[in-house]
Each structure stands twice: as C-alpha cells, then as structure tokens.
Amino acid sequence: MINIAVLGYGTVGSGVVEVIEKNHDSINIRAGQEINIKYVLDLRDFPGDPVEKILVHDYNVILNDPEVKIVVEVMGGINPAYQFTKDALLAGKSVCTSNKELVAKHGAELLEIAKEHNTNFLFEASVGGGIPIIRPINQSLTADKITEIIGILNGTTNYILSKMTDEGEDFDTVLRQAQQKGYAERNPEADVEGHDACRKIAILTSLAYGRQVDYEDIYTEGISKITNADIEYAKETDTVIKLLGMTKVKDDVIYSMVAPFMLDKEHPLMNVNGVFNGIFIHGNVLGDTMFYGRGAGKLPTASAVVADVVDAVKHQGTNIMTIWEKDKITLGDIKDFECRFFVRVKDTNSKTHIEDVFGEVTYINSDKVLGEVAFLTASMKQGDFDKKIRSFDLIQRIRTTL
Amino acid sequence: MINIAVLGYGTVGSGVVEVIEKNHDSINIRAGQEINIKYVLDLRDFPGDPVEKILVHDYNVILNDPEVKIVVEVMGGINPAYQFTKDALLAGKSVCTSNKELVAKHGAELLEIAKEHNTNFLFEASVGGGIPIIRPINQSLTADKITEIIGILNGTTNYILSKMTDEGEDFDTVLRQAQQKGYAERNPEADVEGHDACRKIAILTSLAYGRQVDYEDIYTEGISKITNADIEYAKETDTVIKLLGMTKVKDDVIYSMVAPFMLDKEHPLMNVNGVFNGIFIHGNVLGDTMFYGRGAGKLPTASAVVADVVDAVKHQGTNIMTIWEKDKITLGDIKDFECRFFVRVKDTNSKTHIEDVFGEVTYINSDKVLGEVAFLTASMKQGDFDKKIRSFDLIQRIRTTL
Questions:
Q1: How much is the pLDDT for A228?
Q2: Which candidate in B200, B225, B368, B381 is catalytic?
Q3: What is the mean pLDDT of chain B?
Q4: CATH class, range B2-129+298-325
Q5: pLDDT of B184 higher than 90
Q6: Which chain A positions have a beta carbon within 8 Å of B297's beta carbon?
Q7: What pTM was estimated for this model as a whole?
Q8: Domain A135-294, CATH 3.30.360.10 — does that match?
Q9: Which of A137, A142, A214, A387 is the Cys-Cys partner for B310 at CB 3.0 to 4.6 Å?
Q10: Would you state the pLDDT for residue B183?
Q11: Contact call for B135 and A140, based on CB within 8 A
Q12: With an 8 Å Cβ cutoff, are A140 and B304 in contact?
C-alpha cells in the first residue's frame, strides 16, 4: 500500500478522490499496489462528506508524515502551491499537479529538485486536461525534431467560437450562455484573452525544446474582438476561426504565439469543436500527429492526475528523465513571423490602393457584410503587414494557416 | 555510449538507421547517452551502402556480443523474428520491434521473459506506425477503465476507401492505383481482407484489458465487397465507410471485430483520410480521446522504433511494467454484438415485407442506384439480423455507428 495526500478539495481534487474510488481495482493493478488517500488538505470543512475523516487544514501534517509518498497538488495558483510542491519534493515525496501556472512558471526548477531528490514532478493534467500529451512529448516523440506545435488548448474559447460558427450568435451572447452553463468563469479574461492557452503553449514548447520558455515572452491575442462578420468571411473561405497556441521553428528560430487564426479545412484540428481540445505536432521524421480529447472538466482532468499518481507509484525512488533546463529560450520576434492575413477595410479604401500596397490579393465577398472590402494577402511577415496596413481604415485582421 | 543492433535492412530497418543518423544530437540528449549502431543483420549484401562495414549475416555475432544492449527487430514475420527476439531477451538485451504479427502472437510470452530478465520488450511501432498509442495505453490511460477502442488501423484500406469516396472510382481501379503508388502490396490480401487491422486491434485490446486476445478469435471482414453504390448511399446518410478495428465492452463482455462500418459524421475518426490512421479510445472517466497520424511508411514507423530505443536506453536494467497476461480473454460472441445495419435488397422485396420483418426502418434513396431498396434498421443483435435477413434477396449489408 502506498499513501498519498490530495491538496485542495475543489473540482479537480474531488475528481481525483472520485476516480481513485471508482476505478479502485484496475488502478491498483496498473500501479502494482494499493493507492490509499491518507489526507485531503483544504481550508474548508466538509461536514458529512466521506473525506471529512481524512481532512486536514495544516500542510505540515502531510509534509512531516513519512508515510505520504505522493502529494497531489490541485489547488491552482502560484501561492501556496509553489512552496507546498517544493517542500514535498525536498522531502523526497513525488508531486503530481494539474496547475498550469505553477508548471509554466516554476517547472524547470521543480523538475531539477525532483531529479536531485530522486523523486518525480509530474504534470500531465496541466495541458489538455485528460489528453495524454506531456508524456507523449517526453517519452514518445523522442526520435523527432519537433518543428511545429499547434494547439486548441482552451475549451472555453473553443466552445464560444464553435457556437458563434454554428448558431450565428455574437460573442457577448455566447459568452453569457457559456457562463450560465459553467463552461466559462464569471471573470472570463484568463480564457478569453488567451492567457490560459499562453501558459499551456509555454509548457509544451519548453518540453519540446528542453529549455525554459517564459510565457510573458509569448505574443498573446484573445478572441474578444472576433465578430459574426469574421465568422461569415471564414465560411466563405472554407476556414474556421480557432484560438491557437502555435509554436513553429523556421531557420532554427523558435516562434511562439497565441492568437485567433482562420484554420484551413484540410487541417487535422479543423474538427476539434466545442469544449474539446486538440494538439497537433509535426516532427521531422514522424510527420503530422494529433491528440484529441476533453481539455477540461472534473473527471477528465482527474483521469490525467491519477495516471500521474500511478506513474509516480511505479517510479518510487527513480526519477523519470524530463528535459526542461532553466536556461531560457529567446523566442523569435513576432514581427518576423510569416503568414497570410485576412483583412477587412472600409470601402472608402479602393481596390487599386489595396493592390498597390499588397500586390496580388484574394478578395472575399460575403452577402451578409456590407460597406467594406475583405481580402487575403500573400504570405508576409507580421512586421511588413503592420507597415503596409497603416494607410488603410482597418476594421479587422486575422492570421490564417492558408 | 550504448551499442545496438538492427535486424533487417528493409524499409523500416533502413529508416531506423536514417533516423538515428539524421537526429543524432537530439536523440542522444533524450537518451542521456550516445546511441551507436554496432551491427546491421541482413541476409543480403549492400555493396557501397554505409552499413556495409557493420553488416553481419550471422545473428550469433550479435547475440554473443555482450556490448550489444538493444536489438531492433524489424524483419517482420514470425520466423526467425520470434526466436531471435526470445534469445535476445534471454540474454538480457532489450528488444524494440515494429512486428505486429510477432507482438500479436507472442507478446504476452516475450513481455514475461523481458520482466524475468529485467530488460524490455517494446513495440510502439507495431500499431499505428508513428502514432504514439502503445505507450499512452500502458502509461497514460491507467486511471481509466477503457470501454471502447475504435481504430482506423490500416492505411492501405483507408486510402482505397477515401479515393472511392472522393473520386467515385471502383475498388479494383483504386487498388491498382494504390499498388502502383506503393501504398498497397502486390498481394494485397493482408490489408484488404482486414488481417493487418485484426492483429493491431488484438494488440490494443490485449493491452487495454491486460490479458491475451487471440487474433484468430476476432471476427474479421475486409473491404473487397464495398462498391460505389455503397459509397453513394453513405453520402446520402452523411456517413463515410471506414474499415474499423473495434473493441467494445458491454455488460462486462468484451466484443472485438474488424469490419467496414458506415461511420457517422460526428465521430472524431470521420476525418481520418487517405493513408492516415486514427485510434479513438473511450475511458470511463476520461471520456473520448483520439490519436491521429501516419500509420505506416519508412520514417514515421522508424520514428516510433527509435523512440522505443531511447526508452530502452533510459530503462537499462529496469523493466517497464506492461500488463499483458498469457491467460486468454474469451471474447463475446459476435452474434450478440448490437448495431444498426445498412441494408440493400432487390426491389422484388416489398416495403411491406421489410417493415413486417424489421419493424420501423429508415429508407435511403440514391438517384444513382436503381432496382433496389436500401434502408437502415434499428439497433439489433447481429444474430437477430442474420435470421431476419434470410427471407430477402440481399445485395449488401454494412454495419453502422449510427
């Protein structure tokens, strides 16, 4: 029998307790021994709840109990999660977490401490919820040089964009519906402005290239400015608008960004709709691969956390090699990132002027949008686009994968 | 430095040599040490080829060299691959293989020998080519009870069906084209009749449930009887015809089969086209997940083999726990497998008779097919369907996921 402690009895924490209970037999077979939840840490009390008997309010009870070999950190946020995690690793306990802020910010350091203490810091649930993606990058794609990672990494924004596309509702209406259904937070900024996706692409990029990518360095744009007119134009161009976390290597420079893109219909991510997430990876020998599943939610996230617990049990006393050095990657300047842009300008801008400035473009017509001119540029650098667009009355511009 | 030997210098074997050469630096970082190919075994000579200097014809040279720690078996077939693999494991060497026949037939035994000798038998490339799927099932989906595995596991048949769907060509024409392009073997039976997919779903099912599934027990139907008329009807029903390897658990009974299905357009596998493979898995807590990528080809397959080599290097002297007992699973009788059937009968069969026998059905009309009646049944057991259909002039019947 191996004893574990769960820090935080919120959505994910109660999911972890539920999954370990529900699939008790099969999990213990996979782990090779019985997993026993000895403590649950939470500031709150839960009278009548089965965890009442094992509930503690003081982390030191867990930290100082040598019987606890694995700590599940599912509190979220940096403080006190960071200190708790660090202390557990220093005490030789393994830590499994779903906390993307913690991993994005302190992943390299915590992995180093885990290695020094011959224990493990595991974080499969921090990106893509239940989708196996961290372990595949670390252990399965090791023969490849990864040249491209494109992820639909945030279920809330994907749900909003899917609803806008399918039902023609506007952003604000769909956001309100999403909040009512519990798919969006009351304060939706972290999702809607791309901060959540930014932390996740930072984690994936750090792992893919083995060195720290600071999420503050990743250019991030959200979806709050996407309108129904944009959606109509997307339909005309056989694309869908998706919020993508994107990392690409060009001429040995790593570019990373989060932004809404018009995604071409041939792309494997094209059909990742609703609250689902998908992560597309291109390897130089493997070619294209894609991982799809539920990117959030109590049980899918708990499934990934518990899979980490099983792995931690199997690797007691052995550090699972994970390459993520503290030494920081200097990302390429977003001004040098190349793509085709979709552009809407007021119809006071003549086509002659458009073609004078942008050369050959592809005009897009929509019966449903009037008083403007819309077109697709050739592939160009962001910096060049920004200069060229200055002489126009710009309504909107969206990057494309075309 | 760690020495390895490659058995077989065919498509995959030369791919393995190429990948280790091409991504030398990044692979060695991931492995934690330099990987050196000390021998390549082949019956043939390759004058002028760089491997000429390390080519051997006698397996005993490799087996008896204590410096060789890892053997890559990419010869295919059962003999002599089985004996070579067994001898290597008994000698304490790890074996990495892409050989699905070997794994499906002897996986349980070879894993047991590997465990006894504290070494590893790895076979990521045996299913889904470059797609990480074996390691995710073993190590990532450990918190779940898997209730469903549906795979597009054979690129040749998927290419043929995709071409028939997109271009309206008939089976024989597309098969010939596929043979010319090297996507199909001269003797296409193993692919076209579903035997290849059968071995792959047998491997996935054995791993998912931890016990041996004999592929001979899996009901297998190929695609050679699929016609353009079927494709037309699929379009009318908003489905696509795919050859699926399918394992489902119902009332604690495991059913497994390979057969063409009409796949509904909401299914995540719907857009897995051409030579690509996709594997959909439903876990009882994770929900739906899907893995997509190149299911065959020299470099994608080699990518998976080399990833296994990296894992074998990292786990020298430690057996990676893989649960696949020899004790055989008794699969459910295919007669009890339930689904909706798509049926085509001659128009000498009246609709009254159809409804008398099948109850309420959904008729499907196609302008392009005359002289027959086509319909979808309600969900029913295969055994019941077989009885009911006896009194009809049956043209075709295809299972559906509807």
A1: 95
A2: B200
A3: 96
A4: alpha beta
A5: no
A6: 287
A7: 0.96
A8: yes
A9: A142
A10: 84
A11: yes
A12: yes
Tokens linked to A137? 């990058």
The predicted pLDDT at position B368 comes to 86
Query: Are the beta carbons of A290 and B291 separated by less than 8 Å?
Result: yes
Of residues B170, B173, B165, the one with CA closest to residue B234: B165
In angstroms, the CA A207 to CA A138 distance is 7
ipTM above 0.90, yes or no: yes
In this complex, the residue of A22, A124, A284 whose CB is nearest that of residue B285 is A22
Q: Where in chain A is the domain with CATH 3.40.50.720?
A: 2-127+298-326
**Judging by DSSP bridges, how do beta strands A239-250 and A253-264 pair with one another?**
antiparallel
For residue A27, the distance in angstroms to the closest alpha carbon of chain B comes to: 6
A335-400 topology per CATH: Alpha-Beta Plaits (3.30.70)
Q: Which of B14, B30, B6, B210 is nearest to B97 (CA)?
A: B6
Return the CATH class of domain A2-127+298-326: alpha beta
Beta-carbon contacts of B298 under 8 Å, excluding residues fewer than 6 positions away, are B11, B12, B14, B15, B18
Q: Which amino acid is at A221?
A: E
Question: Cβ B285–A300 below 8 Å, yes or no?
Answer: yes
Pick A136's closest partner by Cβ from B136, B210, B287.
B136
Of A270, A276, A285, the CB nearest to B23: A285
pLDDT mean over A191-209: 98
What is the spatial distance between Cα A236 and Cα A226, in angstroms, rounded to a whole number?
A: 16
**Which element (helix H / strand E) includes A340?**
strand A338-346
Tell me the fold of B336-400: Alpha-Beta Plaits (3.30.70)
The verdict on a CB contact (< 8 Å) between B310 and A142 is: yes
Give A66: exposed, middle or buried? Use CB within 10 Å, 0-12, 13-18, 19+: exposed
